[in-house]
Amino acid sequence: MKLFCFATLLLSLALAYYVYTPMPETISEPWKLMILDAAIRSTMHVGAFLQTLGICHQVHVVRFVQQMQPMPSGDTKVQDLTFAGVQVRVYEGTGGEEGRLRRGMVFLHGGGWALASTKERSYDHLCRKMADELKAVIVSVEYRLAPEVHFPKQYDDCLEATKHFLTPEVLALYSVDPAHVGIAGDSAGGNLAAAVAQQISVDDTISVKLRVQALIYPVLQALDFNTPSYQQNHNIPILYRSSMVHFWLEYLDADRTLIHTMLINNHTAKDQKALSKHRAKFDWTALLSPEFQKNYKAVVPRKGSPKILKKVPALLDVRAAPLLAEEVVLQKTPQAYVLTCEHDVLRDDGLMYARRLEQAGVKVTSEHYADGFHGCLSFASDPIKFSVGERAVQNYISWLNDNL
Ligand SMILES: *[C@@H]1O[C@H](CO)[C@@H](O)[C@H](O)[C@H]1NC(C)=O
């Protein structure tokens, strides 16, 4: 009996240690987030273990767990189709006025270019909600993922599917008004949405243009992993700084061991001549307002690892890092909605892009959640619901309703 009590005590302590993560006081529902984070971490750990044993890739374990969640249902018409060779899930909201053209949206889900899918519970739920509340047609793109494919395949899939939807014939087929089509995405999907929006804006062969781009805590650059938000939130669930760098290396199919040197910005040290023409585009000391800079210091090593930018040229490719676009390109992009969360390593990616769009003359709505954390929009409905997630989804859809 004594032994049993002792073992129980030890096990509880180990569990508490595993679950407990210090949280900032201002974050939404810290205890719930701690438990959610522990669940995600344990999935990742089991995945890493199975990968070490050579049984499967870590990503496959995470995907398996994601698929176990119950699926929403409702009246929305949902069809799995192929647009220009790319799988898409099309949602058609009901209840629009008879004979009137509808609004259209392309939606690109997040997941570090490696996880999730259009069919995942939270994304499926969000797209149904968008379709119903906006009485719109939503095209959620099932772009291929890492580790099976790498950059630029994810981007290409999204671009091709979007171009297909934007053709006048296809829009007519769905009764969508060509003047009212937008694009949106969260996290890595926000990265893809920003990149696709840029390309559509400069491609003269595409006659129908996007009306809005809605970027939800987008990832936009891989040149500075020490922005104030990366420094401040490096250990905040559910996206740790090291996980974000890892997602980048996997997406760009770069040597995974570069993580250590890139975490300290060795790839963008002062001795990188190739970077001089880009620096101003991601210089947070100029692009962020002082309230976000706080007392953080820029991390620019004097000497670094000069070969990285040559070995991984995609780090400077605007299709991977939309923040590096020239102002003449940004000028042409549509009206923007940029959602950022205080407790998110990617906060400053979004804030810097919003600032650069504004400087280029684009109309921008910046919505910042002081209690938000990365991924919160995916936790806006049962069984895992956060107040900040619910608020953010509602405000995002209401912005689309007013501006799309
Ligand atoms: C960063 O670059 C410096 C200078 O080349 C090098 O001495 C150091 O080992 C690098 N750091 C890492 C973690 O690779």
TrEMBL record:
Record-listed E.C. numbers: 3.1.1.71
Swiss-Prot/TrEMBL keywords: Cell membrane, Endoplasmic reticulum, Glycoprotein, Hydrolase, Lipid degradation, Lipid metabolism, Membrane, Microsome, Signal, Signal-anchor, Transmembrane, Transmembrane helix
Signal peptide: 1-16
Compartmental location: Cell membrane; Microsome
Record's keyword annotation contains Manganese: no
Major localization listed first in the record, in broad terms: membrane
One CC-aspect GO term: plasma membrane
SUPFAM superfamilies: alpha/beta-Hydrolases (SSF53474)
Family annotation (InterPro entries): AB_hydrolase_3 (IPR013094), AB_hydrolase_fold (IPR029058), Arylacetamide_deacetylase (IPR017157), GDXG_lipolytic_enzyme (IPR050300), Lipase_GDXG_put_SER_AS (IPR033140)
Molecular function terms from GO: acetylalkylglycerol acetylhydrolase activity
A single BP term in Gene Ontology: lipid catabolic process
Catalytic reactions of this protein: a cholesterol ester + H2O = cholesterol + a fatty acid + H(+); a 1-O-alkyl-2-acetyl-sn-glycerol + H2O = a 1-O-alkyl-sn-glycerol + acetate + H(+); 1-O-hexadecyl-2-acetyl-sn-glycerol + H2O = 1-O-hexadecyl-sn-glycerol + acetate + H(+); cholesteryl (9Z-octadecenoate) + H2O = cholesterol + (9Z)-octadecenoate + H(+)
Catalytic residues of the enzyme: S187, D344, H374
Entry membrane topology: Single-pass type II membrane protein
Lineage top rank: taxon: Eukaryota
Alpha/beta hydrolase fold-3 domain segment(s): 105-261, 316-377
Family in the record: Belongs to the 'GDXG' lipolytic enzyme family.
This protein's name: Neutral cholesterol ester hydrolase 1
Source organism: Alosa alosa
Top-level taxonomy: Eukaryota, Metazoa, Chordata, Craniata, Vertebrata
